Amino acid sequence: MNFLKLLDGAEYLEERGNPPITGLDYDSRRVKPGWCFLAMRGEYTDGNRYIDQAIANGAVAVVSDSLPPREGIAWARVTHGRRALARLSANFYHHPAEKLVITGITGTNGKTTTSFILSRMLRAAGRGIALVGTVEYRIGNQTYPAPRTTPESLELNQLFANAVQAGCTEAVVEVSSHALEQQRTFGIPFEVALFTNLTRDHLDYHRTMESYFQSKTILFTGQGVEPPRSVVINIEDEYGRRLFSFASAITR
């Protein structure tokens, strides 16, 4: 895939060069010859500090959310690093999320239990299932370690691509508030959005319950895509009742 094709749909301010791209990563340590390195500012570090390392490892193109083009290498400057990563990842893996029926599950408690129950129901109905969650990632009958509940969009698209290749038709994804706030699921077309409940947690990150709740609503509005076609909301929960009113207004 050429660099300009990789950039298709990304919000870039400027670009130059069009080399063939054989891989993509946001971690300079994993970059190989012929790859594109996406340098983005993160929560704890700034990937733009590692551009030289990525180039030394063989990167032929750099996409940066901060820096203007550098001489001697293909380059693009984007408005938002994680949204760009999501677009580039989807392009590189030929939009695998669009080939699956995806259910996203969010809430403080019960995400994992709900995801396992739903996955078992779908498997019992004869569907090929991919599962992304806190305990494990699963593609068909194969399980893999889960470093985080909802991975970055690059790993998410890799998982979806492997799921499609393995013959899966459905995916069940636990969607954390961190992932929604950080736009790791940008561009993922969720067919169904499910909310379990909201209790006091993650306030070291969100600071207030209202901010925490607002992050959850993102799953129901869609990020870079249309809102989910169906929603399942626990209205016995105080925040679930608020979310039901919010989601109802969106779907009218």
Question: What does this protein structure show overall?
Answer:
With about 250 residues, the chain is α/β, with parallel strands linked by helices. It has 2 domains: about 5-90, Udp-n-acetylmuramoylalanyl-d-glutamate--2,6- Diaminopimelate Ligase, Chain: A, domain 1 (3-Layer(aba) Sandwich); about 95-250, Mur-like, catalytic domain (UDP-N-acetylmuramoyl-L-alanine:D-glutamate ligase). About 35% of the residues lie in helices and about 20% in strands. It is built from 9 helices and 12 strands. The chain has helices spanning about 5, 50-55, 80-90, 110-125, 155-165, 175-180, 205, 210-220, 240-250, and strands spanning about 10-15, 25, 35-40, 60-65, 75-80, 100-105, 130, 135-140, 140-145, 170-175, 190-195, 230-235. The strands form 2 sheets. It has a 7-stranded mixed β-sheet with strand order 9-8-7-10-6-11-12, sandwiched between helices. The model has no long low-confidence stretch (mean pLDDT about 95).
